[in-house]
Amino acid sequence: MENFINTQLQPVETCSICTDVFSAEHQPVTLPCKHIFGHECIKKWLRTGRGNNAACPHCRLVMYEKRNPKAAFDTPSVWKALCDQPPERLHAFMTKMWSSLQTLWQRKPDGKFTVTELLDQVIIPSLMQTASPNSPRQAQDNDPLLDCYNLIAASWDSLGRPDTANGLAIPLVRLARLMSSASSTLPKWLTTVPRTNRLFWKANACLGLNDADISWTSIIAASENLTETPHFALLHLYTVLISQGMAHNPQPGHLPTRRHEIMNLVVERCCKKIGGEGWSGKPSNEFKEVLVVVYEELRRYQVEKKKPSLRGHDGEEVVVSGIWALAGWSVKKR
Fold it and tell me: 215: which DSSP letter?
């Protein structure tokens, strides 16, 4: 024991991080685990160290829980974090997208926008503007919009800025096309309402990461299986667009009496004006039959009964589901 005391119990004179001698300018501090380091060295380790820098460099005892551990920087993780953002943050992002799309429409009135135009003039600028930190503290925290901007911009540039969407650009280009295709139907004031943008986001997000296009197949599947469909938000948005088109476009005083004339009217207003060439696939004949009944019910609700148009309000899902369920049942009964 005496030998141990005399040879092993040595005073600590140097910092084990930088190996410099302690002094008045380099004062020692003791961590909860009793290990001693230079004050400035351990501060630097805690603030900027890599890996498990919330633990003692010597024994790895965790000293505090990290407030915002850095999430994985890959497409699925960033997309999930983006979808989990507060509605007001997504609304701010989409408000900038609407403004950029309006400018793009003024330059190209035909609405045939390339992926390059959507990324360069709409998506990337909107991400960059929304992600700009308002304070040094916000800049330090994880920001999914900033991560999204960095991932899309870096990936697109590394590929030579092709006229195709890849990775995280796929769902955002699809969102831009969904918004653009609805702009001729939706009144401008509704694009400034948070609940409208929330519905657009949900309708786009339900299509996942890999589907490049809005598909009629998804809308048809949702209309046929209202209780278990993952694409109900898209059907809800489609119904809102039909309702808004009916509210803001001139309507015939009376519906045509011949079945094929009614069908032509509904296809023109609900399949060509909404979706048009921008959505992939085609509405099936069975879906068109159901759509005729949906159109008639909405017309009876809004035009004849003078009820407000559908606008994406909370609880509106019950109305939408009921209209499509009634229409499907009516067609099957014939």
Answer: B
